[in-house]
Request: fold
Amino acid sequence: MRILVALSGGVDSSVVAHLLKEQGHDLVGVMMKLWTDPLAPEVMRALPTKCCSVEHIARARSVCKTLDIPFYVLNLEEEFKTQVVDPFLEEYGKGNTPNPCINCNRTIKFGTLLKKMEEFGCEKLATGHYARIHKEADRACIREAVDTRKDQSYYLYGLTQEQLGSILFPLGELEKTEVFALAEKYKVPLYDSYRESQDLCFFPEKEPSAFLKRYLPPSESGPIKTLDGKEVGTHEGLPFYTVGQRRGLKIGGLKIPLYIVRKEQKSNTIFVADDGADMQNELVASNCVWHGNIPDQSGEVPLTARVHSLGLKTPGRLTRNGDSLHFRFSKGIRGIAPGQSIVLYDNELVVGGGVITG
Reply:
């Protein structure tokens, strides 16, 4: 089979290429050059955890040379800026907390890259994601990876049936320790500076505040209030805070920590509550995507759900209404932030998900 392999210069995608070559497939290696913040401090632009650096390209090229397969660098900066970065900034400007990785998977990694797959005459696209694809009757859905600590199913819920039919996740059945063992077997180098990719790839800072300040119009400061209306502090602008946040509020003189429970755009106000009072039991989401056995719209369906990529799955009951959903948790949880996604599971299988609106 002729397979397009998406390479990042990291261990995971390098092992994928070696595995598929060992299985006898005809491979084409590609690396995406994505948009990165040109206004970021120059000293921070080439961090080892960030993508698209000269070092990462050289490592990916070296893998392809070792395997004697062609290697191409695809310049997708414009597409990435338009389809991922700009919507990210737009949503933050509205006071929401978007998840650009979910959007990137849907539009770039398994959108634009699948079109490139066809141009290269390939039948499948393989990546180093930790997830599995489960076929049921005539439909497909995402299944959690065997290594639940590395599982990336949350980020992949937005893929369509057509996209799922063209994708391979060779690492989904492996533990990370097994991947490292394969890297040693295949002599994939672990560089002294090697660290797992983390945080968002298009700006160098760990948190988005500095990036947002570089690209969003100046934000007005406003009050931080408790739910009963008592003013306890001042915020620097709604985009720089998220629901569930505790640190960085600069509220002094209190014996108990306070958590953000709501951002009100109209009054430019952040509302906080103490530990426990900030928990929420339900949410509404829209722009839903469904996989596998699509939940019926009559009655409630018992499922588990994540509202963060690494959050624990919490049981609850789903009510589906066309393109939107209502989910009621069995217990209160923290950090239900508009703009983030809820992803629903039936045991290991991703049933679907949507963007949280309230």
